[in-house]
Amino acid sequence: MKDKLKGHSAMFTANFLWGIMSPISKSIFLTGVISAFSLTNMRMVGAAAFFWIASLFMPRESVTKRDLLLLFAASLFGITLNQGFFVVGLSYTTPIDASVVASLTPIITMILAAFIQKEPMTGKKVIGVFMGLTGALILILDGAGSASGGSLSDGRVMGDLFCLIAEVSFAIYYVAFKGLISRYTPVTLMKWMFLFATICCLPIGGSEVMRIPFAQLDSTIYLDLFFVIFGATFLSYMLVSVGQKRLRPTIVSMYNYTQPIVASLLAIWWGMDSFDVMKGFAILLVFLGVYVVTTSKSKAQLDAELAEKAVREEAAASGGDAVDKQK
User: In the chain, where are the structural domains located?
Assistant: First the structure.
């Protein structure tokens, strides 16, 4: 129970930080100085540096050559494709659209977990996922209705598609690499994954980063960059690996629904929106959905119940045979 509580706390905190990241990233792009490619490269290089520095203060873990290959594949789906496509997609579309697409992740994860890990797609789990989806969409569409402006770029559809690719990629990471994640500490996992991601992405956008006039940047932009790199990348990814070790993929992905809650609460706090009954109902739906999925039965639990039922039936049959012999 204590282990699961740690997993839930880790996933909530990671998604809380990601919920703050979307509007902050958008504000960085609006300066016109830092592009999506540049921010993606800065996140990867910065997080890799933080993880390798952190590893110096921890017991050294040896990683097998086979697992290094698996870590490269994990970094491809969990970082390179996810971060790259999401940040680029966000630069073309709106934070609201990006949030809508992100809401599909638990559904994609549930389907992948059913095929890859043979996790049962129980009625309770389906109801929980869709409760969370409904709550998230109510919040997102409510935000869309109150948003000012409404002018959209011509690349909005392409941006939405890029965000979808990012979420599918992350769903694959949630499901396919749970075994790998359980073998190493979060720092060991992430130092290699972010190193591989940096090697993949730096040749594409490294020169663009070098052309940024850092000396001319406002202190606010530096604070935003620090939050995105340290908080929403270094801390978040470390917390996700903690959650992955302790929770099932569908439960892990359900915490995506906390991101629009964070965005809504921030908008209220900043005076850009107000709290009403509909928002309260939506937030309640999200947390109820997470609770329902959390309490749904895993494959191991269902297998144990089937085995127990088989033992009971065998015992009953043996008892019946004994009675027949006595007769």
Answer: 2-296
